[in-house]
Amino acid sequence: MPTPLTGPDPSQKVIDPVGPHAEGLKEGRLLVARCAGCGHVSLPMRPVCGRCATVGRAYWIVSSGRGRLWSFVEFHKTYSSTFKLAAPYVVAVIELEEGALIYGNVDAPYADLEVAMPVTARFEDTGHGRELIFTTE
């Protein structure tokens, strides 16, 4: 069961929809937003829930880090100098067990992957911060 970090507050305004998520990653925690109206989980946090239209009542929870591959692709070129993975590498859309979709890298050969395959988040210290990587179970 995910642990709420902050309770829902109707007066709370969504100012930074990804800042707490990014800070959580630095601390080795995967944070996602939950709607206080219907429980829908999303990332980034949205000012209006995409399921029930509740306004401004989302709060951050810690994800279990478990999910399933929803879609994936193998890149054969590194497109950014800040991106440290050597090509080829796998980028995937993962459906977390809480329901949110998130992009991430998968530490497994492309040929071994299948849609709906279980994956688990882990954090790797890279010398320039923590990096979120998903591994197959």
Biggest β-sheet description:
5 strands, mixed, barrel
| Average pLDDT reading | 87
Radius of gyration: 16 Å
- Separation, N- and C-terminal Cα atoms: 20 Å
Overall CATH architecture of the largest domain: Beta Barrel
Query: Might you state the CATH topology name of the largest domain?
Result: OB fold (Dihydrolipoamide Acetyltransferase, E2P)
- Poorly predicted regions are none
Question: What would you call the quaternary organization?
Answer: single chain
Encode the helix/strand succession as letters.
Answer: HEEEEEEEE
Spatial order of the strands in the main sheet?
4-5-6-8-7
Beta-strand segment tally: 8
Count of alpha/pi helices: 1
Highest-level CATH class of the largest domain: Mainly Beta
Fraction of residues in β-strands:
35-45%
Helix content: under 10%
Structural class: mainly beta
State the domain count: 2
Overall geometry: globular
Pfam families: OB_ChsH2_C, zf-ChsH2
InterPro entries: ChsH2_C, ChsH2_Znr, NA-bd_OB-fold, Thioester_dehydratase-like
Protein name: DUF35 domain-containing protein
Describe the structure.
InterPro entries: ChsH2_C, ChsH2_Znr, NA-bd_OB-fold, Thioester_dehydratase-like. Pfam families: OB_ChsH2_C, zf-ChsH2. Residues 23-52 form the ChsH2 rubredoxin-like zinc ribbon domain. By secondary structure, the chain is mostly beta strands. It has two domains: 1-63, no CATH class; 66-136, OB fold (Dihydrolipoamide Acetyltransferase, E2P), CATH 2.40.50. 6% of the residues lie in helices and 37% in strands. The protein is built from one helix and eight strands; from the N terminus they run αββββββββ. It has one helix at 19-26, and strands spanning 31-35, 41-42, 58-62, 66-75, 89-96, 101-106, 118-125, 130-136. The strands form two sheets. A five-stranded mixed barrel has the order 4-5-6-8-7. A three-stranded antiparallel sheet has the order 2-1-3. The longest helix is centred in the first third of the chain and has 8 residues, at 19-26. The two termini are 20 Å apart. The mean pLDDT is 87.
